[in-house]
Write a structure and sequence with these properties.
mainly alpha, 3 strands
């Protein structure tokens, strides 16, 4: 009887914890209808509303960010996402995850809005872009452009798989990272749909 009661109690406790835990998806972008549907929103009106949704989300996650800078960063994201054929919400979601929209963010050798690792990327960045040092890398336009370049190259190396491209961008496979980026992406999508 004690063994049966203990088993039932363990099952109830385990069930409670499962109900409180949000599911972690191994490939949130690959399995996301939301992501797939946003790929079809490419009209000039949609692009304008996407930029406004990004601005709004930036101000929500970083209330200290000025409206002018939110608009400027959103415009840069739109520009470089188009150039590299990326979803601007994906670039914005990574930017929020990496730096909380703080242009001078520095952490463990990673710099700027997109948290670009200078030690790993500096040599090829110097050859490819007019960026010679970390001070120039911290400039928002340089940082967003290079971050978009890195993301696009990683997705291309992953044969179009966004989740694997995110793993490469991050430097290792981490479901919690992909899911966090997906949560930011979904939040931006919600703002876009309300416009």
């Amino acid at each position: 009887m004690k063994k049966c009661l203990c088993t039932v109690l363990c099952f109830l406790i385990f069930s409670f914890f499962l109900s409180e835990v949000k599911p972690v998806l191994a490939a949130p972008f690959t399995s996301s209808r939301e992501y797939q549907s946003m790929q079809n929103s490419r009209s000039p009106r949609d692009q304008h509303n996407k930029t406004r949704a990004i601005e709004s989300y930036f101000r929500r996650v970083n209330p200290r960010l000025s409206a002018a800078n939110a608009s400027r960063y959103a415009g840069m994201i739109e520009k470089y996402a188009a150039h590299y054929k990326l979803d601007p919400f994906l670039v914005a979601a990574i930017l929020v995850k990496e730096s909380t929209v703080k242009p001078n963010a520095v952490s463990k050798g990673n710099y700027g809005l997109m948290q670009i690792n200078w030690k790993a990327n500096g040599p090829w960045i110097r050859k490819t872009f007019p960026v010679r040092n970390t001070k120039q890398l911290l400039e928002p336009e340089n940082n967003i452009r290079i971050g978009a370049h890195i993301l696009a190259a990683n997705i291309q190396r992953a044969k179009g798989d966004v989740d694997k491209g995110l793993d490469r961008y991050r430097g290792r496979s981490l479901a919690s990272y992909r899911n966090s980026v997906m949560r930011h992406y979904s939040s931006i999508c919600d703002i876009f749909r309300r416009r």
